[in-house]
């Protein structure tokens, strides 16, 4: 019995088991087994075969965005519109067979956009080069899920299921659980909040399934067994995702309004070039990028060349970006902008910068 059969057996068992107090331990064990088999499926086989042709592209620019979607939803058309790269687009499925990179220039930042081949159902098991596509998506900062507005809901649930089964968690934050395996001393279990979904017995059962008998577990929020399994496995990727509904020119206004009001969703039309500027604004927001301008003493700030950083970057990060020796020679910095109480404010290395701040660094 191969891994795929085992996975389908467990999924059937879960679907036909009623959810109640008596079966929650049984379901918890099944979920742990399922996560274990899926992890084995993702690991490359040890047997030496010829090395497959991967299609990961070298990371460049300030951020990386992956385009994921079913075949023929307009990913290549979107790439051709947004960047200077022309990706072949035609009215048949699987026009794109490899990863095609392009660069969006927006607010002084270079954002790398990856046009990936279409995903089909069962991609997580390796159908239609699905594994390589998903492996590239794991390295991105934000996923844009391209959906056909005429059949969006079905596609969305299928794609979410595929990505979830390979350990990509969309628009979710990491569960606040402290977990540390130890050499001995059994399992010490504690929680700072009342738990409604997990119990000590269930936690022990799940840990025993992973052959962990000595560990420290502390729940700082009310988490489900699935989230606890994610923490044990530890190779989950939590990333923001933007659901983009393309071809909105083919549906009614009421339907467009309904789709546009859904969380994390944007409606566009690549054919008629509608709403693409709003999509770029949303993408900038999701990437959490900020522009910081530099200034020399006695001169005007240089607004032509911005330093692109992540939101929450400190003065120390800016120093490292300019030159790696600058932080060690740092004396103080003068900052103008929204992050200061008054302009200019004299700050140290720990000061957090905000979008469009101007900084002047003084060395020792």
Automatic annotation (TrEMBL):
Stored CDD domains: DRG, TGS_DRG2
GTP-binding is among the record's keywords: yes
Domain TGS: 288-363
Alphabetical list of Gene3D superfamilies matching this protein: 3.10.20.30, 6.10.140.1070
UniProt cross-references to InterPro entries, sorted A to Z: Beta-grasp_dom_sf, DRG, G_OBG, GTP-bd, GTP-binding_2, GTP1-OBG_CS, P-loop_NTPase, Small_GTP-bd
PROSITE patterns reported for this sequence: G_OBG, GTP1_OBG, TGS
Origin: domain of life: Eukaryota
Domain OBG-type G: 63-288
Function: Catalyzes the conversion of GTP to GDP through hydrolysis of the gamma-phosphate bond in GTP.
PANTHER family in the cross-refs: DEVELOPMENTALLY-REGULATED GTP-BINDING PROTEIN 2
Subunit structure comment from the entry: Interacts with RWDD1; this interaction confers protection to polyubiquitination and proteolytic degradation. Interacts with JMJD7; this interaction is direct.
Protein name listed in UniProt: Developmentally-regulated GTP-binding protein 2
